[in-house]
Amino acid sequence: MHPNNLHSALYDFTALQECTPELSEYVFVNKHQVKTIDFSDAAAVIALNKALLCHHYNIKRWNLPEDALCPPIPGRVDYIHHLADLILNKKVVHGLDIGVGANCIYPILGSQIYKWNMVGADISEDSVIMARQNATGTVTDIDIRHQTDPAYLFKNIIQEGEYFDFTMCNPPFYSSEKEALKANMNKNKNLQLKTTATRNFGGLANELWCNGGEALFIKRMIKQSVPFKKQVGVFTTLVSRNEHLPKLIKLLTKLKASHAIIEMQLGNKKSRILTWKFNS
Q1: Nearest 5°: phi and psi at 175?
Q2: Could you tell me the sign of the dihedral formed by the alpha carbons of 81, 59, 37, 203, in that order?
Q3: What is the pTM of this model?
Q4: What is the CATH number of the domain that holds 181?
Q5: Residue 83 domain-assigned?
Q6: Distance between terminal CA atoms of the chain?
Q7: Are the CB atoms for 200 and 65 separated by under 8 Å?
Q8: In sequence order, what DSSP letters do the residues of 20-65 get, joined into one string?
Q9: For residue 257, is it within any domain?
Q10: Radius of gyration over alpha carbons of the chain, in Å?
């Protein structure tokens, strides 16, 4: 976990419940005499997220539509802090989140932690509407844009004359709904949860899967970043599966882009950020 991440310690459930009383419904004391929640319960995870945003980031109003992706706040905060390292804490920063989702979590955290000027883009009109509602009350204004052509990631979003210090993305992990459900069943089994438990993280179709899965999505992003190389300081994306990196790096090398990989770990979960930029 990044050293600047506030969430390296155990959750202070007393303080969290004071900020968000609805969390109390889900808090219990486990066999180790520690306060916790049932992390397989989507409603409990959403209530915890509301409390974390309220207590640590002064976000008093945050909601999600049914089945929308419910982001784990500590991991999202880690991505934000690593981005801050990349851009060397410039005074005025403009960032773009590709696939912002209804939760709008990255723009919210970027605004509240670093006062960045954030833009979020999404192909789902419903997600755009909810993201705009969640973005209210942040330190800086957040601009949520609707991508009307799902074939493109940057085109139609990055406007002529605009410059972004970075772009970021949490790409769809899976290639199909079937793959997503199978992964969730395996996760529940590993965590010794009920095999019938629903996805505790939620997720709409466009948030969790796409044709070709994560690898093909990121390849498309890399290729589509080329026309915007002079309008973006550094392109970044999460990569959940380490085995995807060799082919992605091969493509970046072919396109003459310099790259770096930032390893991240939250508990037992490992992930990484792939960054790239064009030198000419």
Answers
A1: -95, -10
A2: negative
A3: 0.88
A4: 3.40.50.150
A5: yes
A6: 33
A7: no
A8: -GGGGGG-EE-TTS-EE--TT-HHHHHHHHHHHHHHHH--------
A9: yes
A10: 19
For residue 138, give the 3-state DSSP assignment.
coil
Residue 239, in any domain of the structure: yes
Tens digit of pLDDT for each residue in 207-239?
444 566 899 999 999 999 999 999 999 999 999
Distance CA 261, CA 249 (A): 10
Q: How many domains, the chain?
A: 1
Residue 157 lies in a domain: yes
Containing structural domain, residue 211: 65-278
Which tens digit of pLDDT belongs to each residue from 79-135?
Answer: 999 999 999 868 899 999 999 999 999 999 999 999 999 999 999 999 999 999 999
| CA–CA separation, 255 and 253 (whole Å) | 5
Q: Provide the β-strand partners of residue 272.
A: 239, 263
DSSP code, position 158: S
Is residue 258 within 8 A of residue 277, CB to CB? The reply is yes
Q: Which two tokens stand for residue 206?
A: 């466009």
Closest of 189, 191, 200, 184 to residue 40, by C-alpha: 200
* CA dihedral of 276, 170, 76, 164, whole degrees rounded to 10: 50
